Amino acid sequence: MRDLVAAEWRKIWTGRAWWALGLSAALLCVLADAGYLTQALDQLPKGTTTEADLTSTLVQGWFMVELVAALATMLAVTREFSNGAICRTALLGGGRGRVLTAKLVAAAGTGAVYALAAGAAAAASPWLFLAGRAWHPQWTTTTTWTLLGVMLVILVGALWGSLLGIVIRQQVVAIVVLLLSTWLVSEGLLRLAPKIGRFTIDEAMAAVYRSGNDGVLPIPWALVVLAAWIVVAGVAGRTLFLRRDLP
Q1: Whole-angstrom Cα distance, residue 56 to residue 209?
Q2: Exposed e or buried b for every residue in 35-50, given b needs 16+ CB within 10 A?
Q3: Rounded to the nearest 5 degrees, what angle is found at the Cα of 57, between the Cα atoms of 175 and 207?
């Protein structure tokens, strides 16, 4: 199993996709934090925000790495279905069940790598963005929980991307589904039907990293919803992977 997990790990980290996605995520997070800072610099003198709030917000901005982690693991899975290599993987891996387990373990490890990198960047960002300014970072318990929430949703996102890839199989369709659900469906449902929208996986993630969105679930319930989505996707992915014909 160790060799099988190592093989799946190499599939995710081989090529240019992982670092291109990582650089894109870092750029998006930096731009987001720069935007937050510009707004906060107008609000701080008025007292409508505080240094502690700004510190937590700058940390929170790194949640977007979750999408990159999901795409990285999804691309690794769907690439095998697209080029037909998944049949050879299942044969050489000793069975579909072993291959599925190895893919999910590799996806979780990938999520952990992205989470640690994003966590380090997020923790440093308040000092970097406020360097040389009249205001200084104020790290609070809320900031710590925000950082842990950001790291957790990145890990969950990597698993979610891998499972979506296993369920959908077709690369373009899987990417479109992920992007639409992240940028359109979840937030649209939260605005139009908040009692339903807050149970989507993206809004549950938003609650965990303390996005401040109105109508999201309390964090304990959001964690339950996240776990439920992963379990449901895991059961669906396992059922389809074990029973459905491979291309």
Answers
A1: 10
A2: ebbeebeeebeeeebe
A3: 55
Task: Give me the percent of the chain exceeding a pLDDT of 90.
Answer: 43
Better-scored residue on pLDDT, 247 or 8:
8
Q: Which residues contact 53 (CB under 8 A, 6 or more apart)?
A: 40
pTM: 0.91
pLDDT digits (tens, 9 = 90+) for 64-103: 999 999 999 999 899 888 887 887 777 777 778 888 999 9
Tell me the two tokens of residue 18. 């992982």
Burial class (CB in 10 A: 0-12, 13-18, 19+), 132: exposed
State the maximum Cα–Cα separation within the chain, in Å, rounded to a whole number: 65
pLDDT for 47 equals 60
Amino acid sitting at position 237:
G
94 sits in the region (left: phi over 0; alpha: psi -120 to 50; else beta) called left
Do residues 74 and 103 lie in contact, with contact meaning Cβ atoms separated by under 8 Å?
no
Q: What average pLDDT score do residues 104-112 get?
A: 94
Write out the DSSP string of 111-140: HHHHHHHHHHHHHHHHHHHTTTSS------
Return d(Cα 123, Cα 94) in angstroms, integer.
Answer: 42
